[in-house]
Design goal:
- It is a single chain.
- By secondary structure, the chain is α+β, with helices and mostly antiparallel strands.
- It folds into 5 domains: about 55 residues, no CATH class; about 210 residues, no CATH class; about 130 residues, Alpha-Beta Plaits (2-Layer Sandwich); about 90 residues, no CATH class; about 100 residues, no CATH class.
- It is built from 27 helices and 15 strands.
- It comes from Anolis carolinensis.
- Pfam families: RVT_1.
């Protein structure tokens, strides 16, 4: 499908339109007509090529091999047998080379997208799922539609508006403060930039593949700019783009595929609507950044923030509290379908309280309301079902809108003296208990009660059965006074899973290391099956996507751990290095790691910690980590060795050696101060990371 032919076939995009919906409709009709002209629809028989690497040359070779085999069986002799065996070896070698070439090209096409590499590896190593016959299966698109819709309807019925809900909606908007009341129209360069960074995801409602739109940027830039700017200037989101197509996705391959509850809905939205959203996202994000419109402890989908920064902050608090002789209580809230139960009236009100007014607020009101969805299952499409609540799943704006929606939650928790860390709908509360405490303070009970009331008023459903507690420190004597939340008793667990990391009572990280090692070894065994059919470059890409990335996930938490704990991670890394280089077990691994320029696992954690420290110091990290670091009084010293040093808490402030090695607020300054002066003086992230890796590499392998 050639983009040039597609552009030549486009007609009618320059037609004058009165309304925004007419503009969008003309876009869809014109693109669909052009696609039908260059690639007419025709009936295709479903055919799955289970061996796409099998070429005509291999087919010819296989026929020749059968002929040689037949000749040998007809007249057995050494000459015919030798000819048959020699040709069979050539054929097997050609098959292996064809597989290697095909698989390597697949991996190369997704080299910069680890998620795509992971999908390719899973498709190549896992057996294909059985395709159900629509005539025999009892599951239908209508059944899925009813199940997904009824689930949210039941949740909404369990969460009726309360007096607090009505009281909040009656609160007057502040008259002072910064206001964001209209969007700035985009020029063509801005539209081109938005289209360039957009992922080419295609929905069945799109008139043509999204990659084709990206390829025809020059010819489509004017009508695309008119649609985007028309939406921004009129404060309206096109009705045509409000429909979603939902595909049921089995949660785990091991689950029963005939049970509706084992599926999760995956929503797909039109590509054009996402382009409009992206234009709005940039301006709304800029306004919130300029006005501190988001909670500083909200880390979900924000630049410089992430799951690792949240966990580093939480573990630092827990370690410092334990070091002082006290204990701490970590509560991990579990919200049920939080994105799907957002109330539209409350969402608009909280946007207005954040400073979004006028035409901009009208746009968000139009964006949220009057939406619908259909379910696609096999060849079936269900009837449309209206969506009466929730931020649109799969929408670019939804994560940011949800962050605005739950912003009051963190302020409420902190008003009771607790810390609150959020990553989108993942909320964690931290209560500090002083040494010698014999009971849970009253403010914690009051906080849980107020939190339950706020969640009900915000029409968010908490699941007490899945809400977990980790009691870190000296908890003896308190366990008989367990807190209750929403009518359920919260019992401490020996381990909890926070943002994909397993935390244990003493923060030894042994459970996390064991879980990570087990998972990585599983993927390593899959990669080992593919290794004979991959080039060296493709094998390296696969190992980095499926093995190294998992070893590096939140590895700043591994800094300071004893070798007995991290040994499993070292074994996994060594196994990956041996697989990549085809090194036998009898050979020493250190030269192999050095040849690959791989830092050992302990040094990888140090690298992550120091990069995080650099980002935190110079405005690229979260403020809640920046508050834990401070420059010493020697920062402006005339002696280069004493410049840009951080203050390291002394033994009187931090008593335990393990806290000094592992807590971010202590270990990060100590590691930073050990850097050479020229590295501490750097202010750009790119040169710093290059210099840091070289510096750590020389120390890891004694290359002084």
């Amino acid at each position: 499908m050639e983009p040039a032919r597609f552009l030549n076939a486009l007609k009618g995009l320059g037609t004058a339109c009165v309304t925004l919906n007419e503009l969008v409709n003309t876009w869809n009709v014109s693109l669909l007509a052009a696609l039908d002209e260059i690639a007419p629809r025709r009936l295709l028989r479903p055919h799955r090529n289970r061996s796409p690497w099998y070429t005509n040359e291999l087919r010819t070779m296989k026929q020749a091999q059968k002929q040689l085999e037949h000749r040998w069986r007809q007249k057995p002799n050494k000459v015919s047998l030798s000819a048959f065996k020699a040709f069979r070896r050539s054929y097997e070698s050609a098959v292996k080379d064809a597989k290697k070439s095909y698989n390597s090209s697949l991996i190369a096409s997704a080299r910069s997208h680890p998620a795509q590499v992971f999908k390719i590896v899973r498709a190549l190593t896992s057996p294909a799922p059985l395709v159900q016959n629509p005539a025999t299966t009892v599951l239908t698109a209508e059944a899925f539609q009813k199940f997904f819709t009824d689930k949210i309807t039941v949740l909404r019925q369990e969460l009726p508006p309360t007096a607090d809900t009505l009281s909040e909606l009656e609160t007057l908007w502040p008259l002072s403060g910064p206001i964001f009341d209209r969007f700035t129209p985009l020029d063509k360069e801005d539209v081109a930039r938005i289209l360039a960074v957009a992922k080419p995801t295609t929905c069945s409602l799109d008139p043509c593949p999204s990659w084709l739109v990206k390829s025809c940027l020059e010819g489509l830039l004017d009508p695309l700019s008119n649609i985007i700017n028309g939406s921004l200037e009129q404060g309206v989101f096109p009705d045509i783009l409000k429909e979603a197509r939902v595909r049921p996705l089995l949660k785990k391959p091991s689950l029963d595929p005939m049970t509706l509850a084992n599926y999760r809905p995956v929503s797909n939205l039109p590509f054009l609507g996402k382009m409009i959203e992206r234009a709005v996202l940039g301006q709304l994000q800029q306004f919130l950044d300029d006005t501190a419109g988001l909670d500083p402890f909200q880390s979900g989908f924000r630049p410089g923030h992430g799951t690792e920064t949240v966990l580093v902050a939480i573990t630092d608090e827990l370690r410092r509290q334990s070091d002082s002789g006290g204990s701490a209580l970590l509560v991990l809230l579990d919200l049920t379908a939080a994105f799907d139960t957002v109330d539209y009236d409350l969402m608009i009100h909280r946007l207005a309280m954040s400073g979004v007014r006028g035409q901009a607020l009208d746009w968000f009101n139009s964006f949220l309301r009057n939406r619908s969805q259909c379910v696609e299952y096999m060849d079936q499409v269900s009837d449309r079902s209206p969506l009466l609540c929730g931020v649109p799943q799969g929408a670019i704006l939804s994560p940011l809108l949800f962050n605005i929606y739950v912003r009051p939650l963190a302020s409420l928790v902190r008003s009771f003296g607790l810390d609150c860390y959020q990553y989108a709908d993942d909320t964690q509360l931290l209560l500090r208990l002083e040494p010698g405490a014999t009971s849970i303070p009253e403010n914690f009970t009051l906080c849980l009660e107020a939190l339950s009331n706020w969640l009900h008023a915000s029409r968010l459903k908490v699941n007490p059965a899945k809400t977990e507690i980790l009691w870190h420190g000296r908890s003896t004597g308190l366990t008989h006074l367990l807190p209750t939340f929403d009518g359920a008793v919260l019992s401490p667990s020996p381990t909890v899973k926070s943002l994909g990391v397993v935390l244990d009572l003493q923060l030894t990280m042994e459970a996390q290391v064991a879980a990570a090692s087990k998972q990585v070894f599983f993927h390593l065994r899959q990669v080992r099956q593919l290794a004979p059919y991959l080039s060296d470059e493709a094998l390296a890409t696969v190992i980095h996507a499926t093995v190294t990335s998992r070893l590096d996930y939140c590895n700043a938490l591994y800094v300071g751990l004893p070798m007995s704990t991290t040994r499993k991670l070292c074994i996994v890394q060594n196994a990956a290095a041996r697989l990549l280089t085809r090194t036998p077990m009898k050979c020493h691994i250190t030269p192999v790691l050095q040849h690959l320029h791989w830092l050992p696992t302990d040094y990888r954690g140090l690298y992550k910690m120091l990069v995080l420290t650099f980002k935190t110091l110079y405005g690229q990290g979260p403020s809640y980590l920046r508050d834990r670091l401070s420059f010493s009084h020697h920062r402006r010293s005339q002696r280069p060795s004493q410049r840009d040093l951080l203050y390291v808490p002394g033994p009187r402030e931090v008593h335990l050696e393990r806290t000094r090695r592992r807590a971010f607020s202590v270990s990060a300054p100590a590691l930073w101060n050990a850097l050479p002066p020229y590295m501490r003086a750097m202010r750009e992230l790119g040169p710093f990371t290059l210099a840091l890796k070289t510096w750590l590499f020389t120390r890891a392998f004694n290359l002084f």
